[in-house]
């Protein structure tokens, strides 16, 4: 067992590991990224099927242990994945990981900025359902909007907490992410759109007009959805709001 500060719950059920790999359809043409290989339950079978595996592990004790038995087609990197520039490591086209729960949100957003073909990932159940939540539901969040805009997301199956050591307090899910070839709606500036989405959900129960006034110090009838609350806006609505605000900014109205 490793330090709790890394938030790792090791997958101990090899059947689940095989299922996860199968959902990603790994072939000898694939270079696969694995975050948090831990004790190698996913890494070894991934290496058998893929051309190459890029495994990033933060825990130096686990890295030392993994080096003893991993095959030559595994590139093992000792680092915090959140600090790794994906452009500086071998290019990968697929991602398969049992993610440390504590970095689920930042690593998911980081993945969504990278060009990959498919990811199959294990998340806590509640987090997985936030990824696919619709506007107006209790699980709807900034994450729901970002995932919907960038990828097709599917929950493949639920995994019992007994599949992990140490055993978490909740069940988990295997989730598949496939980046969209075309975004479902147009935004003028993705960076502005994602920042606005974050700012909006920091005040999810407030009306849009109050949030916009707080952020931009401005009110206008030209801005849509002013009397709606953030949690009621669809991703498309937020995209429209983002574009309107940017256009007004360009006109130096804001």
Describe the structure.
It is a single chain. With 254 residues, the chain is α/β, with parallel strands linked by helices. It has helices at 14-23, 43-49, 60-66, 104-112, 125-131, 142-150, 190-201, 208-216, 235-250, and strands at residues 10-11, 31-35, 52-57, 74-78, 94-98, 118-124, 151-159, 164-165, 172-179. It folds into 2 domains: 4-179, Vaccinia Virus protein VP39 (Rossmann fold, 3-Layer(aba) Sandwich); 190-250, rRNA adenine dimethylase, C-terminal domain (Helicase, Ruva Protein, domain 3, Orthogonal Bundle), CATH 1.10.8. It is 34% helix and 19% strand. Helix 4 links the parallel strand 5 (94-98) and strand 6 (118-124). The N and C termini lie far apart (54 Å).
Q: Within the largest sheet, what's the order of strands? A: 4-3-2-5-6-9-7
- Largest sheet, strands/sense/barrel: 7 strands, mixed
Separation, N- and C-terminal Cα atoms = 54 Å
User: What class, by secondary structure content?
Assistant: alpha/beta
Shape: elongated
The level of helicity is 25-40%
Rg value: 20 Å
Average pLDDT rating: 94
**Contiguous uncertain segments of 5+ residues:** none
CATH-wise, what's the superfamily of the largest domain? Vaccinia Virus protein VP39
Question: Would you tell me which CATH topology of the largest domain applies?
Answer: Rossmann fold
Our count of domains comes out at 2
Q: Any guess at the CATH architecture of the largest domain?
A: 3-Layer(aba) Sandwich
Strand residues, percent: 15-25%
How large is the count of helical segments? 9
Number of strands: 9
Q: What pattern of helices and strands is seen along the backbone? A: EHEHEHEEHEHHEEEHHH
CATH C-level class of the largest domain is: Alpha Beta
